[in-house]
């Protein structure tokens, strides 16, 4: 499997997360790109760019799109990719989610989507004196 990864986020959140994940892992085993959707962007223009990037990233196994905030412009743009491409969209991207995804380059799109959700969820916890408490 060779799923492409596209981060569509506000500002440079995606670029910073990707660079940090590469710094932690030492490598980026999946073809990955980032796309910024500033608050004052033209959503149609960003969608066109997202389609172009998804076309470049998709080697036939689909594209996993990670966004920062469900219901926001980046998330809405990502959801519109469904009409034109084989994609799965996961909102709420965080560093644990991205690292989890990049650690499983051999998985198919559905498996990788599941890893993204569990990685993001499991990476959010409360630390206290008794040990970590999962937030959910």
Question: In words, what does this structure look like?
Answer:
The chain has 136 residues and is α/β, with parallel strands linked by helices. It has one domain (4-134): Rossmann fold (3-Layer(aba) Sandwich), CATH 3.40.50. Helices cover 43% and strands 21% of the residues. It has helices at 13-25, 43-57, 73-80, 95-102, 109-122; strands at residues 4-9, 32-36, 63-67, 87-91, 125-128, 131-134. It has a 4-stranded parallel beta sheet, sandwiched between helices. Strands 5-6 form a two-stranded antiparallel ribbon. Helix 1 links the parallel strand 1 and strand 2 (32-36). Helix 4 packs antiparallel against helix 5 (109-122). It is globular.
Tally of helical segments: 5
CATH class: Alpha Beta
Architecture per CATH nomenclature, i.e. the level-2 architecture: 3-Layer(aba) Sandwich
* Radius of gyration, whole Å: 15 Å
The largest β sheet comes out as: 4 strands, parallel
> How many separate domains?
1
Helix and strand content put the structural class at alpha/beta
Please give the number of β-strands. Answer: 6
Distance between the termini: 31 Å
Note the overall shape. Answer: globular
Which bin fits the share of residues in helices? Answer: 40-55%
**Rounded average pLDDT:** 94
Write a compact overview of the structure shown.
This protein is of the alpha/beta class and 136 residues long. The chain has helices at residues 13-25, 43-57, 73-80, 95-102, 109-122; strands at residues 4-9, 32-36, 63-67, 87-91, 125-128, 131-134. A 4-stranded parallel β-sheet has the order 2-1-3-4, sandwiched between helices. Strands 5-6 form a two-stranded antiparallel ribbon.
């Amino acid at each position: 499997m060779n799923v492409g990864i596209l981060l569509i986020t506000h500002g440079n959140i995606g670029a910073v997360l990707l660079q940090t994940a590469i710094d932690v892992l030492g490598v980026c085993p999946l073809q990955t790109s980032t796309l910024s959707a500033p608050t004052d962007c033209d959503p149609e223009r960003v969608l066109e760019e997202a389609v172009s990037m998804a076309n470049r990233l998709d080697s036939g196994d689909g594209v996993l799109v990670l966004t920062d905030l469900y219901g926001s412009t980046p998330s809405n743009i990502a959801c519109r990719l469904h009409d034109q491409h084989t994609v799965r969209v996961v909102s709420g991207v965080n560093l644990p989610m991205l690292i989890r995804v990049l650690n499983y380059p051999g998985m198919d799109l559905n498996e990788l989507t599941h890893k993204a959700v569990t990685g993001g969820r499991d990476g959010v916890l409360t630390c206290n004196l008794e040990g970590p408490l999962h937030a959910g």
